[in-house]
């Protein structure tokens, strides 16, 4: 086979891996949209906040140290301990659950039955709030996130493919891990929503708020549950993205990579988020590969949206979205 | 209707910030928030700590105390305008906008308002021509110098010839990142290497396709013009594709601790330009520790002393203080004005002895500023990251750029600017007083 | 008692259909306008002008434009930043290609160019709706910014890709460039705002505005009663983009002076203008003013308070500022989900009955 074909295959495989990373972020959006019809603008910031909290707990940072120092003139920074990763993850999860609880209690409770655009706006406010809170709590400097995930080119794959095809394929180990974790996450979420009581309640709420209420499902408990799960997904996305480029403000911008995925896959479908992510990932990498010499690269940012746009012209509700039936 | 409230609130804001007399006002346009905060924080801390040291140790410059003020730009041009408008009435002695975008915006305004601006290692390169850009200084080195220094270093590595070599430039797709392209294009024609330019859109967390391209094209060297999260991501990706790190060279904005530490051991051997020394092995740090950190006056945590961006902020402050001293000497007064400060900057002479007496032997190059050259010598060193010891090591002495070529390009660009804006290139006379 | 409509009889259809049917409103409007045009310039410093009022006025225009599209026609657009970039680059090309062209025409022509681009990217709206439409406009946002950083023709082949506005004058007074004074720039922008707000107000009251609202409320029903969705949607995109383009051209020429597409007109601009429209109130001209004031003037005032008066470190102040804006958005939402204009409307209702609430 000519070497160009190998290049293209390699690009496509790496596109798949990138797609998994996009899908991880998109999953959080889908979960909340399904359960409450809210387009959660704060999902990216939640990922940042979760990752910041994780690093902060891991390295024993004192939360709000900066604020306390500014007000009381003290100079505190660290507790002086290092928590084991697993404890820090559990701690972070507790914080995310608390956050979900507070969001429900302080915001959503007051906005039941409002139009989607208003709920969307509430999440904008939440995004601002969390962004500031994360910085005030943990500081804005770049942090290294190390949860023990391997990184770098997989030598085994390189060697094996070299022996088989005479070309050593490059695959990032972290990306492989991300793919595995995403698969576990999706299977877990599917099992949860199909076979547990809470999962069924969750789907009932997603179908029809009022009907669910009338059969005795607590809407508020379900919302707390959904936001907690979304917080967990945000944590996973934050870990995977943070591990590759450090934890800092830019992490919150990954939400932008998830938008075309969401739109392509449909807002309401978990498989849609995964398939959408894969299509976008492969599509943008291959486009960049073939057209880079002509148009000069860095096309990734807009190509994903253009691709989603073309798909939408044929299926206005996304690939797996529910069919929109319009009546007068 | 609403305006009155705002005016009232503003009036309160303005009166509280009114400048007192007999002070030298050194503002700092910093960015401690936003995507580039990790680089902006240590720079701002270094700048502030050195000025605090001058106040604490020497009682100010020539007996006149320094007043510092800080304005947050978040690397955003609109915020930059706001900061500038707030500052310009308060006699700022020198502005250091710390962003190429804000620099471009302020060049015409500072000319109009007669406030000197110092863009150290960034900004508009053709400001080297002081006859056109009377109020803008960019000593000791600029981007075009940097690009040329890297090529000169590579020439040295390759016994004077880069024929048939392939060099890739990985750049931040912004005004900052595109700066070196003209220089590198000219150098590639002259030296016979093939130049490959690869853009990364801001912020640059996603570079897998760029690095697959690099893997495919197999360039001999990769030069990086990056800032913020783009740096660590690029170094990570380079480590992932097992690109030889010693052939990967970043500009001085891509060579600080936070760019390499997140990558861990993979970053070992990565090189970057250094426009000044790093590390805590300079006597000035003892003074900083005693007079600033131990007294609880440090702007940051005190733990970042000696890091690259901190050193750069400190260096910028040091050059500003020295220029102020020159200005005081020229005009024979302690309380200098921005116009006098410009004279000081335009006549600044940095010698090795001076650096030594300041507790920074060999930290920066010796250079002289005059009207036709606002850019110093352009010399820079190469530093290499040691991931085991977690420190930068300087591996070369000062390397000079090809100033002839750069001055040629500077003249082209600056004269074009002068023609566009009806400026007659001329040396500015010293201000009165 | 202060604010009432009793005794305010309308004798003609014209009087009944006027923009401000209540006398008090009319007075307030003319007073505000007179104040803005005659009193404000008297005490306007360059800081007040360049840091607060000029950006405020420019964003009012952008918010008006987006409000026409989103608030009146119901089409969600996240391409505002990209369209502002079109306006800015069109203004730059016009200024450099025709140095003799009056700055007012430059700005208007830039708006027209943007309108044409807006129609092009509005075409998918005929098939895609709601949040899904946002993708079409996001494609515009990213593609346009990419184009302006990649194609050197747009920035006249300058090595860095920065565009710089040359000095232009109006009646002999410099409006752009470093020598422009705060007062002249402020009045220049105020002129545009007044004309455009007046235009927007009347557009939305006319048949075009009604067809937009019909589409917004239910497009299938609108189609059945004879509203042409093609004409309504595309005209909304065109006019909205015209406004946004003018805002972009003004932002570049008079407020910033130098700009670069990816930094000055990034996706955050799109969100910023969207937030203004939503926070101010959808489908309201006044909302554009309130939203812009909240998000442009608010943070600067907070900064002045926290940094200059209370002496907080700038970074902490910036973080707290973001938190306060976020909290305020949430608090306002919970108090009044339909934006700040709705609060204002409720207040007006109360005032109308005061002091006899029943």
From TrEMBL, chain A:
Keyword hit for Cell division: no
BP GO annotations: amino acid transport
Transmembrane segments: 6-33, 45-66, 86-108, 117-140, 174-193, 221-241, 261-282, 294-314
GO cellular component assignments: plasma membrane
Record key words, sorted: Amino-acid transport, Cell membrane, Membrane, Transmembrane, Transmembrane helix, Transport
Compartments, as annotated in UniProt: Cell membrane
Topological relation to the membrane, as annotated: Multi-pass membrane protein
InterPro entries given in the database record: ABC_transp_permease, BCAA_transport_permease
Cross-referenced Pfam families: BPD_transp_2 (PF02653)
Recorded GO MF terms: transmembrane transporter activity
PANTHER family membership: ABC TRANSPORTER PERMEASE PROTEIN, BRANCHED-CHAIN AMINO ACID TRANSPORT SYSTEM PERMEASE PROTEIN LIVH
Membership in a protein family: Belongs to the binding-protein-dependent transport system permease family. LivHM subfamily.
Protein name per its UniProtKB record: Branched-chain amino acid ABC transporter permease
Organism: Rhodobaculum claviforme
From TrEMBL, chain B:
CDD domains in the cross-refs: PBP1_ABC_ligand_binding-like
Record field: transmembrane: none
Domain of life, per lineage: Bacteria
Keywords from the UniProt entry: Signal
Signal sequence annotation: 1-22
InterPro entries per record: Leu-bd, Peripla_BP_I
Domain (Leucine-binding protein) ranges: 28-388
Family indicated by similarity: Belongs to the leucine-binding protein family.
Protein name, entry field: ABC transporter permease
Originating organism: Rhodobaculum claviforme
Phylogenetic lineage: Bacteria, Pseudomonadati, Pseudomonadota, Alphaproteobacteria, Rhodobacterales
From TrEMBL, chain C:
GO MF term (any one): branched-chain amino acid transmembrane transporter activity
Species this chain originates from: Rhodobaculum claviforme
UniProt-annotated location(s): Cell membrane
GO cellular component: plasma membrane
Name of the protein this chain belongs to: Branched-chain amino acid ABC transporter permease
Protein topology in the membrane: Multi-pass membrane protein
Transmembrane segments: 27-44, 50-69, 76-95, 101-123, 130-149, 183-200, 236-259, 271-296, 316-335
Short name of any one Pfam family annotated for the protein: BPD_transp_2
Major subcellular location class: membrane
Annotated keywords: Cell membrane, Membrane, Transmembrane, Transmembrane helix
Recorded superkingdom: Bacteria
């Amino acid at each position: 086979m000519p070497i160009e074909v190998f290049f293209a295959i390699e690009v496509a495989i790496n596109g798949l891996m990138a797609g998994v990373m996009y899908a991880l972020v998109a999953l959080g959006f889908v979960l909340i949209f399904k359960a409450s019809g809210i387009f959660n603008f704060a999902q990216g910031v939640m990922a940042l906040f979760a990752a910041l909290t994780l690093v902060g707990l891991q390295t024993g940072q004192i939360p709000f140290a900066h604020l306390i120092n500014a007000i009381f003139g003290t100079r505190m920074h660290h507790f002086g301990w290092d928590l084991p990763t697993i404890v820090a993850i559990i701690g972070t999860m507790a914080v995310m659950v608390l956050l979900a609880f507070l969001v429900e209690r302080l915001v959503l409770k007051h906005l039941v039955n409002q139009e989607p655009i208003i709920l969307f706006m509430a999440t904008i406010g939440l995004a601002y709030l969390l962004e500031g809170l994360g910085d005030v709590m943990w500081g804005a400097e770049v942090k290294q996130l190390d949860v023990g995930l391997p990184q770098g080119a997989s030598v085994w794959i390189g060697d094996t493919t070299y022996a088989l095809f005479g070309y050593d394929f490059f695959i990032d180990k972290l990306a492989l891990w991300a793919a595995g974790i995403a698969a576990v996450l999706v299977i877990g979420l599917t099992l949860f929503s199909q076979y547990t009581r809470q999962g069924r309640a969750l789907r009932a709420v997603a179908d029809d708020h009022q009907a669910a209420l009338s059969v005795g499902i607590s809407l508020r408990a379900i919302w707390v549950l959904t936001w907690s799960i979304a917080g967990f997904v945000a944590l996973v996305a934050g870990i995977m993205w943070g591990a590759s480029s450090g934890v800092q403000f830019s992490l919150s911008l990954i939400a932008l990579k998830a938008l075309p995925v969401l739109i392509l896959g449909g807002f309401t479908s978990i498989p849609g988020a995964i398939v959408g992510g894969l299509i976008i990932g492969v599509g943008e990498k291959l486009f960049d590969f073939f057209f880079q010499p002509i148009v000069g690269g860095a096309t990734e940012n807009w190509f994903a949206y253009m691709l989603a746009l073309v798909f939408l012209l044929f299926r206005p509700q996304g690939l797996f979205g529910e069919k929109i039936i319009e009546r007068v | 209707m609403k305006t009155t409230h705002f005016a009232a609130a503003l009036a309160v804001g303005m009166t509280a910030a009114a400048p007192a007399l007999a002070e030298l006002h050194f503002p700092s346009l910093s960015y401690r928030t936003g995507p580039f905060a990790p680089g902006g924080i240590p720079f701002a801390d270094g700048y502030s700590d050195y000025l605090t040291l001058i106040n604490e140790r020497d009682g100010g410059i020539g007996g006149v105390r320094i007043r510092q003020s800080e304005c947050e730009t978040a690397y955003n041009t609109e915020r930059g305008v706001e900061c500038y408008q707030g500052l310009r009435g308060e006699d700022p002695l020198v502005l250091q906008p710390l962003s190429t975008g804000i620099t471009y915006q302020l060049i015409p305004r500072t000319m109009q308002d007669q406030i000197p601006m110092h863009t150290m290692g960034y900004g508009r390169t053709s400001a080297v021509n002081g006859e056109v850009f009377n109020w803008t200084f960019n000593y000791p080195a600029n981007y075009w110098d940097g690009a040329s220094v890297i090529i000169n270093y590579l020439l040295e590595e390759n016994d004077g010839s880069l024929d048939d070599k392939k060099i890739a430039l990985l750049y931040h797709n912004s005004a900052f990142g595109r700066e070196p392209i003209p220089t590198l294009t000219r150098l590639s024609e002259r030296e016979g290497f093939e130049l490959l330019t690869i853009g990364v859109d801001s912020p640059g967390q996603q570079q897998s396709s760029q690095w697959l391209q690099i893997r495919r094209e197999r360039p001999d060297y990769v030069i990086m013009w990056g800032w913020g999260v783009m740096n660590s991501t690029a170094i990570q990706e380079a480590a992932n594709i097992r690109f030889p790190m010693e052939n990967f060279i970043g500009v001085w904005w891509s060579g600080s601790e936070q760019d390499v530490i997140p990558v861990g051991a993979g970053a070992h051997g990565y090189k970057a330009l250094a426009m000044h020394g790093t590390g805590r092995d300079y006597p000035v740090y003892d003074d900083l520790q005693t007079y600033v950190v131990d007294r609880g006056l440090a702007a940051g945590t005190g733990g970042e002393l000696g890091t690259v961006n901190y050193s750069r902020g400190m260096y910028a402050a040091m050059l500003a203080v020295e220029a102020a001293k020159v200005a005081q000497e020229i005009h024979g007064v302690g309380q200098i004005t921005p116009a006098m400060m410009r004279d000081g900057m335009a006549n600044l002479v940095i010698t090795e002895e001076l650096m030594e007496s300041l507790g920074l032997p060999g930290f920066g190059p010796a250079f002289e500023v005059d009207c036709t050259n606002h850019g110093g010598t352009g010399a820079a060193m190469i530093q290499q990251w040691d991931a085991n010891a977690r420190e930068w090591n300087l591996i070369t002495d000062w390397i000079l750029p090809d100033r002839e070529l750069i001055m040629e390009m500077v003249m082209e660009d600056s004269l074009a600017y002068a023609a566009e804006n009806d400026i007659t290139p001329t040396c500015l006379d010293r201000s009165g007083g | 008692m202060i604010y009432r409509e009793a005794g305010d009889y309308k004798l003609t259809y014209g009087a009944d259909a006027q923009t401000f049917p209540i006398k008090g409103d009319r007075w307030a409007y003319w007073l505000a306008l007179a104040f803005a045009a005659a009193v404000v310039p008297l005490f306007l410093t360059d800081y007040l002008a360049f840091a607060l009022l000029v950006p405020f006025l420019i964003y009012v225009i952008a918010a008006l434009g987006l409000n026409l599209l989103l608030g009146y026609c119901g089409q969600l657009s996240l391409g505002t930043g990209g369209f502002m970039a079109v306006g800015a680059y069109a203004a730059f090309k016009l200024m450099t290609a025709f140095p003799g062209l009056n700055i007012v025409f430059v700005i208007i022509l830039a708006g027209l160019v943007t309108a044409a681009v807006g129609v092009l990217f509005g075409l998918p709206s005929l098939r895609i709706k709601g949040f899904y439409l946002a993708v079409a406009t996001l494609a515009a946002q990213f593609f346009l910014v990419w184009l302006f950083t990649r194609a050197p023709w747009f920035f006249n082949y300058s090595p860095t890709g920065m565009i710089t506005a040359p000095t232009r004058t109006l009646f002999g007074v410099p409006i752009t460039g470093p020598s422009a004074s705060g007062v002249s720039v402020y009045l220049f922008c105020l002129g545009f705002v007044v004309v455009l707000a007046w235009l927007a107000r009347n557009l939305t009251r006319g048949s075009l505005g009604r067809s937009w609202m019909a589409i917004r409320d239910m497009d299938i029903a609108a189609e059945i009663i004879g509203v042409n969705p093609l004409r309504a949607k595309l005209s909304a995109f065109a006019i909205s983009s015209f406004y946004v383009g003018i805002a972009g051209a003004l932002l570049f020429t008079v407020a910033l002076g130098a700009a670069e597409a990816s930094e000055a007109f990034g996706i955050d601009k799109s969100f910023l203008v969207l937030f203004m429209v939503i926070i101010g109130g959808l489908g309201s001209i006044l909302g554009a003013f309130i939203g812009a004031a909240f998000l442009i003037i608010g943070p600067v005032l907070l900064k002045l308070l926290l940094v200059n008066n209370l002496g907080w470190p700038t970074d902490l102040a910036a973080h707290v500022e973001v938190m306060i804006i976020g909290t305020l958005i949430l608090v306002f939402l919970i108090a009044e989900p339909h934006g700040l204009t709705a609060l204002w409307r409720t207040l007006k209702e109360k005032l109308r009955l005061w002091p006899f609430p029943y």
